Amino acid sequence: QVQLVESGGGLVQAGGSLRLSCAASGRTFGTYTMGWFRQVSGKEREFVAAISWSSGKGNYADPVKGRFTISRDNAKNTVYLQMNSLKPEDTAVYYCAVDKSIVVHTTAPSYDYWGQGTQVTVSS
Questions:
Q1: Which residues in the chain belong to E strands, given as ranges?
Q2: Among 2, 25, 31, 109, which is 20 to 30 Å from 75 by CA?
Q3: What are the tens digits of pLDDT across the range 57-86?
Q4: What is the C-alpha separation between 80 and 35, in angstroms, rounded?
Q5: Model confidence band, residue 29 (pLDDT cutoffs 50, 70, 90)
Q6: 94 CB contacts (<8 Å, ≥6 apart)?
Q7: Exposure class string for 65-95: b at 16+ Cβ within 10 A, else e
Q8: How far does the chain reach from its first CA to its final CA, in angstroms?
Q9: Quick one: pLDDT at residue 28?
């Protein structure tokens, strides 16, 4: 059974930084894509970033480009999201997800496994 466990969320002031981690277990993910999404209550889950397991190249949503960086450690089956210059509008529950595809997708239905989410709150 696949498990994804996120950590690193919390409360930070605007302009600050946080680093989220997502540890995957239960199977070998090979060339799978891993992504981060976020969701505000009452709104749809929004793509943030994704990374190909094989190439290591990141793909970012426009609102976070230049501020967030996604990376991965294949040996640890872990993906990270470094979030800098945080803004109040970044406040959301952040979810880690795995897509059993080498193609980097940016839509939530494309992803097969999800973590439980971690809250990120940015105060103004």
A1: 3-7, 10-13, 18-25, 33-39, 46-52, 58-60, 68-73, 78-83, 92-99, 113-114, 118-123
A2: 109
A3: 899 999 999 999 999 988 888 999 999 999
A4: 9
A5: low
A6: 6, 9, 20, 36, 37, 38, 48, 81, 117, 118, 119, 120
A7: eeebbbebeeeebbbbbebeebeeebbbbbb
A8: 40
A9: 63
Backbone CA torsion sign across 48, 94, 71, 64: positive
Please give the Cα distance from 97 to 50 (Å, whole number): 9
What is d(CA 28, CA 8) in angstroms, rounded to the nearest whole number? Answer: 23
| Per-residue tokens: 1 | 């059974």
DSSP-assigned states of every residue in 68-99: EEEEEEGGGTEEEEEE-S--GGG-EEEEEEEE
